[in-house]
Hints:
Elements: E1 5-8, E2 24-25, E3 28-29, H1 30-39, E4 44-48, H2 53-62, E5 66-68, H3 74-85, E6 88-92, H4 100-109, E7 115-121, E8 133-134, E9 137-145, E10 150-154, H5 167-180
Parallel strand pairs: 1-4, 1-6, 4-5, 7-10
Antiparallel strand pairs: 2-3, 6-9, 7-9, 8-9
Helix pairs in contact: 1-4
Amino acid sequence: MGCPIVILAGGKSTRMGREKPVLKVGRKPMLLRVYEEASAIGETIVALSRNTPKTRELCLREGIPFVETPGKGYVEDVQWLLREFGPFVSVSADLPFLKASDVGSIAKAFDGRVSLTGVLSLEKVPGDLRPPTYRGYAIVGLNAVGSEGEKFFELSNPLLALNVNTPEELKLANRIAKLVGR
């Protein structure tokens, strides 16, 4: 794979009330779950900020490469990363059921120019999940970031619809982890 994979882990976690990347799903911090899957595909780095000191500690302890973004917000940080690294695949640190094949499919489809927004058809979204939707698709936290426009990229893993943002979603993720043995 030509471009790096960047795990976005620098947000303020306001809905959760504490740093999400270090929260455990199935006895493992979400960041480690995501990093293991992403790094199986290619060069992976964690983007953190002053908002995530515990995530920085986890990266240092586990030997995970990271970069510190300005931490001014999602759009600003993604733009900063694009300037620093050029085109990249971005993954949210709060997608505990991400699979290497999900990352691989979007990376393979990415031409390095046109951004790909990862989506799921609404029929694939489990009934108890409420991901953000746009134009009849659920938007998931797996994207490819380029500088020449944007198009949707349809993914198939229904559990990508679970982006852990609230304590309730964390409880649900832990119930699912028990069911799927992850």
